[in-house]
């Protein structure tokens, strides 16, 4: 089975031109088939402030009202996505930028919550593996913005980590998939303020043990939950680590490897 890397790039890397350019150069040099999923960075928040559109975050997740949806769609699926695609082309990596509505690539539904109304936030139902594979077979690298749709004409703002996990799961029948969450930290840390405290390997029982003792940074919990969900669904390996160390993440000499054992 051929190898496929599904790599999510996020955190402060999106906002740092030099670090993003370095990451994309390394990403472009990967010879295997690859998919990139990107977050939005802070540009949408800054633009909303300039336009006087108040932003609400609950547990780090954006409440997406109708005006905010316009901004995140413009920023994520427009400016950020196309800049990444252009940078990959400059590095001789033929890429195409998509959001979930393009080619019916990612179908989602509006999040239902017993108490909170998240607005136009989407939870993924299914990905179009056939469409994605048809592009990969033509040696086109797919770059996904974190915008999905519900097939009823409604766009939805969707967590990029979740999109990466769902794509990795959906492609695992066709490829030997490795899922990599890359951002500004060196991996899963025992001390969030000390980048040298990387945990090199975590299995589910160790994760639950750390979680019960509040040893896992709250912002890392959704990433790890996504990682274990992916492993249970056929994804071969999940790695979390620093975007600047992409090659080392892939060869196993950096970051945190999440395992099923």
Strand content: 15-25%
Q: Separation of termini? A: 22 Å
CATH class: Alpha Beta
Percent helix: 25-40%
Structural domains: how many: 1
Please give the number of β-strands.
14
Uncertain ranges: none
Largest sheet: 8 strands, mixed
What is the count of DSSP helices, taking H or I runs of 4+ residues?
8
String of helices and strands:
EHEHEEHEEEHEEEHEEHHEHE
Order of strands in the sheet with most strands: 5-8-2-1-11-13-14-12
Using the 3D structure, state the CATH architecture: 3-Layer(aba) Sandwich
What sort of overall outline do the alpha carbons produce when their principal axes are compared? globular
Taking all residues together, what is the mean pLDDT? Answer: 93
Question: What does this entry show, briefly?
Answer:
It is built from eight helices and 14 strands. It is α/β, with parallel strands linked by helices and 261 residues long.
Question: Would you kindly provide a written description of the structure presented here, covering whatever features stand out?
Answer:
By secondary structure, the protein is α/β, with parallel strands linked by helices. The chain has a single domain, classed as 3-Layer(aba) Sandwich (Carbamate kinase). The chain is built from eight helices and 14 strands. It has an eight-stranded mixed sheet, sandwiched between helices. Strands 3-4 form a two-stranded antiparallel ribbon. It starts with a strand and ends with a strand.
